[in-house]
Amino acid sequence: MDERRNKARHRVLKAGTIEFGGGAIDCTVRNFSDTGAALDVTSPVGIPEHFTLFIQADGTHLPCTVVWRKEKRIGVRFG
């Protein structure tokens, strides 16, 4: 698989919440960069294309767009 990221991602393990108009879903932030992240989720079903990621440890809210989905992980781009 070709690497398409233009920023290096750093491995992390932080609790997060995917927040959107219809509710919120807990997730784990597995890697993180200035431009995006990979999130572990119980299931990607029901997660909208656009949402806000809240990272409890940092107290940050980041607008996200889903770039890819796998069985229990999604990739997002910030902005």
Describe the structure.
By secondary structure, this protein is mainly β. 0% of the residues lie in helices and 61% in strands. The chain has no helices and six strands. It starts with 9 loop residues before the first strand and ends with a strand. This is PilZ domain-containing protein. Residues 3-78 form the PilZ domain. It comes from Bradyrhizobium huanghuaihaiense. One of its GO terms (molecular function) is cyclic-di-GMP binding.
How do the helices and strands line up, and which of them pair or pack?
Elements: E1 10-20, E2 23-32, E3 36-40, E4 50-55, E5 60-69, E6 73-78
Antiparallel strand pairs: 1-2, 1-4, 2-3, 3-6, 4-5, 5-6
List keywords for this structure.
globular; 6-stranded antiparallel beta barrel; mainly beta
Largest sheet: 6 strands, antiparallel, barrel
Radius of gyration: 12 Å
CATH topology descriptor: Thrombin, subunit H
Computed structural class: mainly beta
Q: Give the CATH class.
A: Mainly Beta
Order of helices and strands: EEEEEE
Q: Looking at the chains present, what oligomeric state does this protein adopt?
A: single chain
Shape: globular
**Quantity of strands, as a count:** 6
Strand order of the largest sheet: 1-2-3-6-5-4
Question: What's the average pLDDT?
Answer: 91
Supply the CATH architecture.
Answer: Beta Barrel
Helix content: under 10%
Whole-number count of domains:
1
Q: Which regions contain 5 or more consecutive residues with pLDDT less than 50?
A: none
Kindly, what is the distance between the CA atoms of the first and last residues, rounded to a whole number of angstroms? Answer: 25 Å
Strand content: over 45%
Number of helices: 0
InterPro entries: PilZ_domain
Protein name: PilZ domain-containing protein
Pfam family, one: PilZ
GO molecular function, one term: cyclic-di-GMP binding
